[in-house]
UniProtKB/TrEMBL annotation:
Protein name, UniProt field: DUF971 family protein
Keywords: Iron, Metal-binding
MF annotations from Gene Ontology: metal ion binding
InterPro entries found in the cross-reference section: GBBH-like_N (IPR010376), GBBH-like_N_sf (IPR038492)
Domain of life of the source: Bacteria
Stored Pfam families: GBBH-like_N (PF06155)
Alphabetical list of PANTHER family matching this protein: OS02G0197800 PROTEIN
Residue ranges constituting the Gamma-butyrobetaine hydroxylase-like N-terminal domain according to the UniProt record: 38-131
Organism (species): Granulicella arctica
Entry annotated with the keyword Lipid biosynthesis: no
Statement: the UniProt record of this protein carries the keyword Metal-binding: yes
């Protein structure tokens, strides 16, 4: 009997996964207003139809890329969306430019796609994904990371 497909997860990881399995009502995942502050380099703000407001920095969004490659890498290392990869400790660390989009494209009426300054562009940030990774104090209590 093979156990290859069995993976033991921590309680925190199980809670994070459960957040993505919850089906949100349409008004919770339908933007009323979307503001992408590309020129200022600050991030994205969304006012949702249910009255909620969310915002993310571009760096956080890049580290939360929902593409299969980024998602699998985060899952293997146990990092939640938005948390950067640990950098190797070196005597002289290399400078890395802050994440910023060079291009932002709406995908139909359901998502945004960013082409990042590091060349990455395969993640499609659906409204539902963005709502589920909301970083406001109401959605993420102090000291807890989604």
């Amino acid at each position: 009997m093979s156990h290859e497909g069995i993976r033991i997860v921590s309680e925190e990881e199980a809670k994070r996964s459960a957040v993505f399995e919850v089906k949100l009502p349409p008004e919770a995942v339908t933007p009323q207003k979307v503001r992408v502050h590309k020129t200022e380099g600050t991030g994205v703000e969304i006012d949702w139809r249910d009255g909620h407001a969310s915002s993310w920095t571009f760096t956080w969004l890049r580290n939360a890329c929902p593409c299969a490659t980024c998602h699998e890498e985060r899952e293997k290392s146990g990092r939640p969306p938005g948390i950067p990869k640990p950098q190797p400790t070196t005597l002289l660390p290399m400078y890395e430019a802050p994440a910023r989009p060079v291009e932002i494209t709406p995908i139909g009426k359901y998502a945004l796609r960013f082409k990042w300054n590091d060349g990455h562009e395969s993640g499609i940030y659906s409204w539902e994904y963005l709502r589920k990774v909301c970083q406001c104090p109401q959605c993420v209590p102090v000291g807890v990371t989604k």
